């Protein structure tokens, strides 16, 4: 693409709330690296050690589990509950609703069914639902019209088995009158008294995308309002009613002053300190491909059979559990902050889906959540982020190579100003897509640090770190011919503008995809790319002039550092198979201000460099001197073992206290010589993450806080030619 050097002056400041972690031997300046936060385990640890445990199946003792009968709770608060029973998973709801604060409700071993009724519901804070272990306590979903959703008390559709409800999560708002810039913690409001004694706020901007440079696409009915992508959740530190100010804990990550239109600060009241532990969610629906309107497979856009919708929840956790089956997503976050998804197994996600499952899905106002140490397999996609997800971390997850599923990608930032995502220390089979513009441009700060990405059986993608530009309608300016199977340019059925050179078109009468309308009539807000407007012609073609004047990019300020990866490339949709050189464009032609440093590129099968595709003009620029910094001499292929890295580098961009408590003695070393470019040596057996050790049913001896794990393989990575 054209480097929009002039138009870049019109873009908002993309300065980051920068990290406090020293960069040590890395060349990347700390001003380019956002601040990420580890999960605060204080309440979680208390729930594991000091909270009382009540057996939901046992009114009076002794209980076979050895736990306290629920009838012995102080104040007899659960005496009116019937004992939980395996015929109805929802039989535990009374215990959840009435348990004392800071309690654990135990679900004994057994299979608890969820059909058109029987949904398990969280409707309050400070309670944990704990099972007897993966495969022992099972919530079995027998119908696709119920969901485990947190945040909607009448969430009877969408699939799955558990719901956490808080219909009053946003109770009141006041005008936000000042304090808009990056890093700001003091917000000026019209009435600060609304927040006295409260804990959380939600900030929001509104207006027109033509006056807000973060947004560059219209949104049709049935899809999230694009301004939802600018929502932000934070904790209140103090309130000054005299000055009408509210001080928040972590501060703003974008400059809201650049968006014209009204701005509000709302009193936000999420569920907090809830836990879901040691439980399997499964289904006995053996043919998920028949669910919904698309007989050929679960449709990711319209029929969402999801197990867990984790909405309006904060400071909570999903740990040591298993989620298997479902259509489209195992877990969906929306308006959820500082949650922890840790030590779980996610697998077998809708094999009937043709394209683009979502896996672990981050959406509107999903802020500062941690997805760590999970084992993921049998899925086309492991997880995606869109609609303004902010500051989330995907770390030390293991996705094994697929044998029965075609891999699309592992994790990906899917547009609408997703910002500041960290992918760290993951062992992934399949592409890591740092940014695409399907739903609109991404925000700044996406970072891949010390990941290992190997290939898999190929669905057009393999072992790459990618930025994808113009996914929807690649050749929009000059190619009027649809050349993608299933998208043949006829305005019939559920056809939509999609890939490989289709024209921009709004399908009359269609109800599928963001290119179409609900009422069946094309209008000025309906074009499949949404950079353009419908012109009123009978063929539905859009005009050729963008309605957004800024540079059309997938993302900006992207960092790719310390990874072992087959390829670092641009848009992969030009690939016909696994064999051609990966990517049809260069990485930094699809994004602005990229930093690529200390990566090892290799091919999974041959061990040779597969592809390192950056624009030649930037390949030789010294670190820190160009618009894009490729840092020559630091990126290497590992086809010949003659050059080794030396120096000291950060172990983590978000953990500052030493090895986490869940790290294994048998796993990779918890230092820079662990997973990633600084430690992977393909001449030895590669070290393994704790999630892989669990997946192989091997002993995983926990270190405890601050320990140092022993490495399973020796040697440092060796390299050959630079870049």
Could you please describe the fold and organization of this structure?
The two termini are 22 Å apart. The chain has 4 helices and 49 strands. The protein has a domain at 170-269: Elongation Factor Tu (Ef-tu), domain 3, CATH 2.40.30. Strands 2-1-3-6-17-21-25-29-32-35-38-41-44 form a 13-stranded parallel beta sheet, with no helix packed on it. It has a 7-stranded parallel beta sheet with strand order 4-7-18-22-26-30-33. The longest helix has 8 residues, at 42-49. With 723 residues, the chain is mostly beta strands.
Radius of gyration: 25 Å
**Main β-sheet, in a few words?**
13 strands, parallel
Measured as a percent range, the helix fraction is under 10%
- SS class: mainly beta
Q: Could you give the order of strands across the largest sheet? A: 2-1-3-6-17-21-25-29-32-35-38-41-44
The helix count comes to 4
Fill in the CATH topology of the domain at 170-269.
Answer: Elongation Factor Tu (Ef-tu), domain 3
CATH class of the domain at 170-269: Mainly Beta
CATH architecture designation of the domain at 170-269: Beta Barrel
**How many distinct beta strands?**
49
**Distance between the ends:** 22 Å
Look at the structure and give the mean pLDDT: 74
Characterize the overall form. globular
How much beta, percentage-wise? 25-35%
Uncertain stretches: 1-14, 145-160, 218-224, 289-297, 299-304, 470-552, 573-583, 605-610, 639-643, 705-723
